């Protein structure tokens, strides 16, 4: 691209060339002084007044050009000029310049043809030629200017030389033609050279600009350093992330020094610059592919780097704070209990292990405690789960606050675990643990209710500091069990004998598993009588286990073990099958009642088991009663309700067992698919002596009757109790030693027959 046609030259370049025509004003001034002085000297030498006129004319042209320059200077915002306007200015400026050269040409021509004075010729031509040199220097920017000026000064000289008809002057005038052409070529050369440079510079600037935009708009921070760790390039994001000033001030600075400066005045802590540099070296050497560095205020940057061929390195880093936060959140969810914010069992284990590893040289006893909130379930039952949760959080907070340097975790439900670091001696540790246990009990204000909370505790003082979470838990658990069996709110330290009991219990569990697998349990049946004792309506199946060495194990004990071991549904299945079979051997009016455990009601498998038992025995569904306890209703009320409704729709009778021992309110009774309420024996125990107990029993009975439920009172032992119940018509059926203890199946038929025999003659005699 050549700058001949202004329209093909970028406008700004054209403008700058045209502007150059009004530059170098000092040379113009020097020129006009020399020109006018020369003309005056020639006038003095030759006495020609033409030169005085020329001197005045050249000064006038100079002044006119200066005025034009001023006008051009005053043009506001030249960048906004159009090509046509620039072209117009070019013409005006060129005309001014051509004015000077025309006068010089005329002066030389006049000297050649008219004056014919050697001084005049020499002076005028010399000054003209010298001026022509400056034409190249001043006016290269406009081809038109160069052409017009060389032409306007050479033409008068050529014409006048030819007019002299002198051979040698003619030759001289011919020489002016190559002079004119070379001057023109020189100016063009300069112009094109400059033009190419300007364009190249513009291109470099635009590439640099694009690179700069890309660099400063990338989401990553980028630092390029030379082999001495001096910053070559740093983008804005890098400065922003590291909070280290503006990019242009950091060029050629040492990266380490810049980071240290940043650390002093910003958020980094003092160790971080060294860390970054060390990691940068490692990453650049390839021993680390990328590295994550955490800064205060939740900022996390991930760095990667690569060595450059010249020994320098490129460091790229990214703000991964939100990713890290999300990961931390997930980690937190995995590690901490969502409700109380305490570490969960696994993470608690990690923390303890961490402590032990860090303090492996320390000596002294360690402590491990389990705290269990007493009767916490009742809070949930009575006040709802929301308040229950709030109370649990309040207790967790107090435990944490009082724990000092102990590590606290939530074990499950209403239990906390604590690990006490090395103490001076056993007494100190014992005292600390008991003090903590004491401090966390007492009043809690939650949801505008005051709760009096007691916690049972079990702890073990550890003899070895080898991590053994399960073993310690077992010890603390055994001690806790001891506390709970003595009195609520107590605390017990583990003793070796407890281990013996534990081992025994483990053995009992193994034996129970074998007994269940071998169908070695058997059943006893306790009849339920009409309140007047005239008839057996139903008999409750009660599981029995006679241990080969230990003899009879109470069902309370082995049923709890089976629940813990997860084999209760096998027992339920056995009892159901057996009970249905036995019931088939009894008189048709007697039903059989089977206990279901809370676990049986957690899934719908029980429906199939019941159907199978009925189908297998051929027993009518209406002769099967199922007993559930209040505790079964707590965990998954919707599932339990659905299962019970289904059973009931099949004509099976549902009884709620041990009624009154749970803490659920009576109000839920009417919402459940129930037929019978079995009032717990604790209600009956003192009714003869304590009229309040009797009132309580009557109230409960009244409510159940209102709801259309049938009543069985359990645990009636004495004729007095029975008489009192009958006096107040407080029950439909009676189950208790007063009529019969649990007996083998065949006794049920015998007992029933005996009753029938006893009542039938009486009726006959009445008739008679
Ligand atoms: P439960 O369901 O309340 O059964 C009644 C318990 O009260 C029986 O104790 C029975 O012997 C006892 N009992 C009956 N009349 C009297 C009385 O007048 N005075 C006193 N003090 N006690 C009386 P048992 O057989 O020891 O059973 C204890 C508990 O074991 C049962 O209480 C029941 O919760 C559980 N259980 C027994 N067999 C099974 C079973 O097959 N499955 C399930 N899930 N639990 C069972
Ligand atoms: Ca029962
Ligand atoms: Ca009962």
Explain what the structure shows.
The chain is of the alpha/beta class and 768 residues long. The chain folds into four domains: 6-203; 218-324, PAS domain (Beta-Lactamase, 2-Layer Sandwich), CATH 3.30.450; 336-494, Alpha-Beta Plaits (2-Layer Sandwich); 520-753, EAL domain (TIM Barrel). The chain is built from 25 helices and 21 strands. It starts with 10 loop residues before the first helix and ends with a helix. Residues 762-768 have low confidence and may be disordered. The structure holds ligand C2E and calcium ion (CA) (2 copies). The site of ligand C2E has 21 residues, from strand 14, helix 17 and strand 18.
List the helices and strands and how they pair.
Layout: H1 11-20, H2 25-46, H3 49-74, H4 83-115, H5 118-139, H6 143-163, H7 167-217, E1 221-225, E2 231-234, H8 236-242, H9 255-265, H10 272-285, E3 291-295, E4 299-307, E5 313-319, H11 321-335, H12 345-358, E6 366-373, H13 376-402, E7 407-412, E8 415-420, H14 426-440, E9 442-446, E10 449-453, E11 455-462, H15 469-486, E12 491-493, H16 496-517, E13 522-530, E14 536-547, E15 551-553, H17 555-565, H18 568-583, E16 591-595, H19 605-617, E17 624-629, H20 632-635, H21 637-649, E18 653-659, E19 676-679, H22 681-684, H23 691-706, E20 710-714, H24 719-727, E21 733-735, H25 745-767
Parallel strand pairs: 11-12, 14-16, 16-17, 17-18, 18-19, 19-20, 20-21
Antiparallel strand pairs: 1-2, 1-5, 3-4, 4-5, 6-8, 6-11, 7-8, 9-10, 13-14, 13-21, 14-15
Helix pairs in contact: 1-4, 2-3, 2-5, 3-4, 4-5, 4-6, 5-6, 5-7, 6-7, 9-10, 18-19
The structure holds ligand C2E and calcium ion (2 copies).
């Amino acid at each position: 691209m050549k700058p001949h046609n202004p329209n093909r030259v970028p406008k700004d370049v054209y403008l700058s060339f045209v502007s150059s025509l009004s530059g170098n004003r000092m040379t113009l001034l020097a020129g006009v002084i020399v020109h006018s002085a020369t003309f005056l000297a020639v006038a003095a030498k030759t006495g020609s007044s033409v030169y005085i006129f020329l001197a005045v004319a050249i000064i006038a042209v100079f002044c006119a050009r200066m005025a034009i320059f001023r006008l051009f200077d005053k043009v506001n915002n030249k960048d906004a000029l159009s090509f046509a306007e620039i072209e117009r200015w070019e013409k005006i400026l060129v005309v001014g310049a051509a004015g000077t050269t025309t006068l010089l040409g005329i002066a030389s021509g006049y000297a050649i043809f008219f004056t014919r004075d050697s001084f005049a010729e020499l002076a005028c031509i010399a000054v003209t030629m010298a001026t022509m040199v400056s034409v190249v220097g001043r006016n290269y920017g406009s081809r038109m200017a160069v052409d017009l000026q060389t032409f306007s000064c050479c033409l008068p000289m050529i014409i006048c030389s030819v007019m002299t008809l002198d051979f040698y002057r003619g030759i001289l005038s011919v020489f002016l033609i190559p002079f004119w052409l070379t001057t023109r070529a020189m100016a063009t050369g300069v112009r094109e050279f400059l033009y190419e440079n300007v364009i190249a510079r513009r291109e470099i600037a635009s590439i640099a600009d694009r690179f700069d935009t890309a660099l400063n708009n990338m989401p990553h921070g980028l630092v390029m350093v030379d082999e001495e760790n001096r910053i070559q390039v740093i983008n804005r994001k890098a400065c922003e992330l590291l909070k280290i000033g503006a990019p242009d001030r950091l060029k050629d600075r040492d990266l380490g020094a810049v980071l240290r400066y940043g650390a002093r005045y910003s958020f980094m802590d003092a160790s971080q610059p060294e860390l970054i540099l060390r990691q940068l070296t490692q990453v650049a050497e390839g021993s680390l592919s990328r590295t994550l560095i955490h800064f205060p205020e939740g900022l996390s940057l991930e760095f990667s780097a690569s060595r450059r061929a010249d020994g320098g390195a490129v460091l790229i880093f990214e703000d991964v704070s939100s990713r890290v936060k999300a990961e931390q959140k997930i980690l937190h969810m995995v590690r901490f209990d969502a409700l109380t914010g305490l570490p969960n069992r696994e993470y608690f284990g990690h923390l303890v292990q961490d402590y032990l590893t860090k303090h492996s040289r320390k000596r002294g006893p360690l402590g491990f405690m389990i705290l269990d909130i007493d009767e916490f379930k009742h809070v949930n039952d009575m006040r709802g789960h929301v308040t229950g949760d709030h109370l649990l959080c309040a207790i967790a907070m107090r435990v944490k606050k009082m724990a000092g340097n102990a590590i606290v975790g939530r074990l499950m439900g209403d239990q906390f675990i604590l690990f006490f670091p090395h103490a001076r001696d056993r007494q100190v540790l014992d005292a600390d643990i008991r003090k903590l246990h004491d401090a966390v009990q007492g009043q809690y204000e939650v949801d505008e209710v005051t709760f009096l909370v007691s916690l049972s505790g079990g702890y073990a003082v550890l003899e070895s500091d080898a991590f053994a979470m399960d073993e310690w838990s077992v010890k603390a658990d055994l001690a806790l069990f001891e506390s709970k069996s003595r009195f609520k709110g107590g605390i017990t330290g583990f003793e070796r004998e407890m281990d013996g009991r534990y081992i025994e219990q483990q053995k009992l569990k193994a034996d129970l598993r074998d007994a269940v697998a071998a169908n070695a349990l058997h059943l006893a049946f306790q009849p339920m009588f009409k309140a007047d004792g005239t008839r057996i309506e139903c008999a409750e199946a009660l599981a029995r286990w006679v241990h080969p060495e230990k003899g009879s194990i109470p069902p309370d004990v082995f049923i709890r073990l089976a629940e813990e071991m997860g084999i209760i549904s096998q027992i339920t299945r056995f009892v159901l099958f057996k009970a249905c079979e036995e019931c088939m051997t009894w008189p048709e009016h007697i039903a059989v009642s089977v206990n279901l455990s809370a676990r049986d009601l957690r899934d719908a498998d029980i429906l199939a088991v019941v159907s199978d038992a009925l189908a297998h025995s051929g027993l009518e569904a209406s002769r099967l009663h199922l007993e559930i306890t209040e505790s079964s209703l707590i965990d998954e009320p919707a599932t339990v309700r659905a299962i019970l409704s289904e059973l009931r729709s099949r004509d099976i009778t549902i009884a709620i067992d041990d009624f009154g021992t749970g803490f659920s309110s009576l109000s839920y009774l009417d919402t459940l698919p129930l037929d019978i309420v079995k009032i717990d024996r604790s209600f009956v125990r003192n009714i003869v002596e304590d009229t309040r107990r009797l009132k309580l029993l009557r109230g409960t009975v009244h409510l159940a009757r209102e709801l259309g439920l049938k009543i069985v009172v359990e645990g009636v032992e004495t004729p007095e109790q029975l008489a009192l119940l009958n006096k107040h018509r407080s029950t439909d059926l009676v189950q208790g030693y007063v009529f019969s203890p649990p007996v083998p199946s065949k006794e049920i038929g015998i007992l029933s027959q005996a009753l029938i025999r006893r009542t039938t003659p009486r009726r006959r005699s009445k008739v008679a």
